[in-house]
């Protein structure tokens, strides 16, 4: 719960009217049935600020600031937060000492999830490091400045499990030394960035990693992945490369060492040799996102035969640049005839400006084939793309098979972040 119900603002309205600091025309409101503030577990500073801007758009900025401070004071006095997002300007709270409001210690002491910019004023990080020692999930968006207090906050955590780093400039040289203490507790590491000239070898220190997500915009960043190709992560279950990917030779060697335990593998760009390596080294996959070109239907069959625990597959469709992906009609036929018995979700992913373009007859043929499977699980059918239009006759077929119980769920996803 991040947005305050209107009833929660009654007390603040009355305060402002008494002080004559802000003129607010308020209808006659009954006292709230519940103390909504006490139910707040998640707080986003920027979302609250944006809501106040919209609510008091005709007021002066100084007046909006007063409202904001009073809301945060009320939250500090009455709530007990589990998650806090602090993505805001470096100087925004410098004079209001957000974490030193009355009640802040009780409000923040149980914080388990925290996300922030790297350049928040140091006093905030210092104050938070005195209160919060049990943050399990930390996300840091690194900017050109890094506050001195951030190191203190990271160092005092006792059980850091999940770390997300959004890179800007060379941030790893700053944060890696701080993670030594957390080498055995960290189980999920995600690094997003446009560039990284530093070694990825530090990842080998996290021997208990279960999830590793590396999202870089340029392939050259992955040249250092060769330092990881011989490292074994015995507990690794999820491996994702949402954008560019490492050299396939390095990655195949990595899968040879770590593929047996993988349950989820996502890679945006692949080739036939890598897909065959997936079939060979990753027999226990439950979810796979990969690419098959139009002449690689046999490789898809090989994966479906060898990965008998596979439940979800996500593939690219259509034509993109010079790549011609496996046609949907061939994909449908192979999935219906060769997918494992527990298979239950198919996602068709379309590149920018490529449309979902199959006939109702082709789709119905696939659904009927799925209906005739023995044994059969209901199928979730997803279409993912930037600009998608599904024709009325297609929707009629989908609705028909939903009613028959053949299709469990259908969804059009227009945001790749959901994929």
TrEMBL record:
SUPFAM superfamilies: RNI-like (SSF52047)
Highest taxon of the lineage: Eukaryota
Protein name as annotated: 13917_t:CDS:1
